Description:
Layout: E1 2-5, H1 9-26, E2 31-34, H2 41-52, E3 62-65, E4 67-69, H3 80-87, E5 99-100, H4 109-122, E6 128-131, E7 153-156, H5 159-165, E8 179-182, H6 185-189, E9 193-198, H7 204-212, E10 230-234, H8 245-253
Parallel strand pairs: 1-10, 2-3, 2-6, 3-5, 6-9, 9-10
Antiparallel strand pairs: 4-8, 7-8
Helix pairs in contact: 1-2
Bound molecules: fructose -6-phosphate.
Amino acid sequence: MEVVIAQDAAACGAIAADAIARVLDRKPAAVLGLATGSSPLAIYDELAARCDAGLISFRHARGFTLDEYVGLPADHPERYRNVIDTVFVSRVDFAPGAVHGPDGLAADIPAACAAYEEAIGQAGGIDLQILGIGTDGHIGFNEPGSSLASRTRIKTLTRQTRIDNARFFGGDVDLVPTHCLTQGLGTIMAARHVVLVASGRGKAEAVHQLAEGPVSAMWPATILQHHPHATVLLDDGAASRLQLVDYYRETYLSKPEWQGI
Ligand code: F6R
């Protein structure tokens, strides 16, 4: 796992955008895994700016979102499918229908989850998966206790996650859905490159566990310690509890620029 401590969220966004640009250069029809929430917004802003400037194109690319709330109406602004359209997809040049999400309104949830796994497989798997991390260590919505080998399925959100996400629902935790569909930890682990971004001291304990704690279902993100190509992009706040912080800084500074993450 590579840990990179950047100046701020915008710097993290630029480093992640560089990695995505390299994937698209190599493979224009690349498959991207897309997270929602606050953490990846700087990445999407940077990618939208580069697309506007003609420096990058998603014309042949495809996308799969990480997760979706169960039961939010199709036109609800916080439905993740709508959020990702607003913050990213509508700002770049994906072909119509190129971005998919799990169906949180499906009548047959297990069948919808199996179909989602199938669609990712049919697309050739995810080349680069963008992730955030919850204060309780979740990635996707794989809450503590999730199977480390899980695939896309329904999960119950923890009270902590619903409190954390109440800011998107007018501060009312009772408006945050109780369930979601999420790519599993096994699904995320199958991505070829995983780029997790975190900012602020509120994420510091989860980030410490992710990079330096024992691998455990209690901190689901720790499974990424087993990933052959996982990159963690942090600001100072999110890095503030890391024991090896000086080592991570030194390692990144001494890396040749061309190598990227
Ligand atoms: C979102 C997702 C979640 C978030 C996490 C952090 O698609 O899967 O794991 O990445 O809850 O959320 P933010 O970035 O809003 O702090």
